[in-house]
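Re: that backbone. Tokens:
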């Protein structure tokens, strides 16, 4: 790097540091200068920073992954703004902007930052926090952060975000050294907190989760949920009857609240999917251009299908079956789709079809409302609910000793939750729903009990060892 280039970069970094608080405020405060409520995961992320600042250098590299639009930049801005202290060095950078605008690498940025600090990283005498957004835009980001930061100085804490889960998940330099946290779509309580400032009731979500997944029988589920009844009613007081529908349509994504125009929300969702396909998947896969151009057709087919046959899909689109499987795998790794395997031993899982849900129901909703679909309204809302329940379960069970499958038999249940040798059958349905799928699945799966999450009231059926759980309970977990 030439002297002139270095000076230009140092001046740029000085400007970034001077303007960082102002830029972060746009994510931290609303137009009335009132702080936005934070996501539930913010507390955990801030704890990592606090531990580092208190002298625990064991964890000093944090990666936030998640699909585009899920709220990573807001979390990064809130962490940056919340750790203002003259005794701490802070640097916030959008790596995509710097690399594209100035044509420099992350390594060159860090070398210029050393010049700005007036010392090499090894000799830093006070804690330094690096907040790096969209890190994947520098192809050598992992080895650069490892060799220039992590291996050289215990005084630096890195928080980096990346929209390309494909890149983040496949890098061994990250896997062995960094803590990885997935930013999931918003839960219903997060949606209401950020939209209307309505906070969850402390401890209620844990009570409901334990009742649903840690009980010994359907009767225990019912009795444990009855104990939360007054708190559940209290939480829902003042919430409009259409909020659940709005939440499932686009409220799982933070920008859906901000835009307040359904057409604009779906337009933004389409742009997110287009960028994932044209940038993330195109850059990190071996697909040819003509195959990349067919991916939107596959996503549309997933959105419209009640069940997905890879063989039929490949035939309908005149694509090789192996190619369709590879595309679905890439969409899963990019966190657009969630794959639910069929229940059974590994050999039978290979033979039977997997079920593909959207990581956020807003993606399916965009195809239905913005592009058009022949799906009937009740079926469409039912699929949105299945996506919602799927991401709730994925979020809750990630990192825990549970597995999640589904019953691929005719009229089988949507989900089978397994812990150890015990199963819980779970069916999701929009509107009122009975126990038919629970019974069908129980005939082939030994289960502790069955749960139907729907609009039906809380009700125990001892003969079927099953309980109907209203969405007013389930959406609070």
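Recovered sequence:
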């Amino acid at each position: 790097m030439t002297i002139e280039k270095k000076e230009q970069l140092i001046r740029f970094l000085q400007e970034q540091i001077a303007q960082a608080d102002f830029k972060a405020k746009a994510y931290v405060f609303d137009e009335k200068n009132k702080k936005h409520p934070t996501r539930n995961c913010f507390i955990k992320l801030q704890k990592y920073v606090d531990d580092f600042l208190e002298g625990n250098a064991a964890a000093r590299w944090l990666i936030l992954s998640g699909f585009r639009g899920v709220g990573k930049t807001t979390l990064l801005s809130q962490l940056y703004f919340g750790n203002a202290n003259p005794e701490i060095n802070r640097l916030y950078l959008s790596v995509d902007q710097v690399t594209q605008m100035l044509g420099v690498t992350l390594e060159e940025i860090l070398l210029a930052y050393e010049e700005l600090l007036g010392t090499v990283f090894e000799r830093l005498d006070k804690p330094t926090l690096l907040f790096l957004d969209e890190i994947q835009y520098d192809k050598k980001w992992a080895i650069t952060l490892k060799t220039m930061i992590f291996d050289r100085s215990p005084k630096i804490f890195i928080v980096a975000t990346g929209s390309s889960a494909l890149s983040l998940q496949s890098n061994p330099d990250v896997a062995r050294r960094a803590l990885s946290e997935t930013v999931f779509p918003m839960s219903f309580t997060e949606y209401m907190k950020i939209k209307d400032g309505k906070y969850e009731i402390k401890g209620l979500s844990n009570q409901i989760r334990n009742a649903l997944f840690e009980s010994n029988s359907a009767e225990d589920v019912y009795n444990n949920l009855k104990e939360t009844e007054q708190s559940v009613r209290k939480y829902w007081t003042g919430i409009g009857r259409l909020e659940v529908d709005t939440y499932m349509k686009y409220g799982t994504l933070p920008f859906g609240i901000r835009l307040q125009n359904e057409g604009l929300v779906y337009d933004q969702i389409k742009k997110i999917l287009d960028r994932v396909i044209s940038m993330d998947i195109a850059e990190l896969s071996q697909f040819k251009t003509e195959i990349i151009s067919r991916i939107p057709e596959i996503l549309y087919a997933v959105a419209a299908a009640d069940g997905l046959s890879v063989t039929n899909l490949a035939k309908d689109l005149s694509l090789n079956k192996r190619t369709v499987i590879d595309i679905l795998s890439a969409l899963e790794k990019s966190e657009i789709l969630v794959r639910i395997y069929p229940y059974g031993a590994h050999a039978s899982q290979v033979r039977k079809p997997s079920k593909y849900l959207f990581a956020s129901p807003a993606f399916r909703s965009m195809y239905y409302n913005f592009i058009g679909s022949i799906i009937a309204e009740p079926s469409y809302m039912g699929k949105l609910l299945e996506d919602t329940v799927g991401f709730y379960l994925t979020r809750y069970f990630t990192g825990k000793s549970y597995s999640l499958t589904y019953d691929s038999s005719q009229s089988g249940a949507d989900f089978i939750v397994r812990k150890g040798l015990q199963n819980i059958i779970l069916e999701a349905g929009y509107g009122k729903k009975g126990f038919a799928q629970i019974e069908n699945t129980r005939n082939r799966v030994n289960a502790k009990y069955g749960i139907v999450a729907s609009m039906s009231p809380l009700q125990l059926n001892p003969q079927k060892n099953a309980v109907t759980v209203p969405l007013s309970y389930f959406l609070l977990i």
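The two ends are 52 Å apart (CA to CA). The mean pLDDT is 91.
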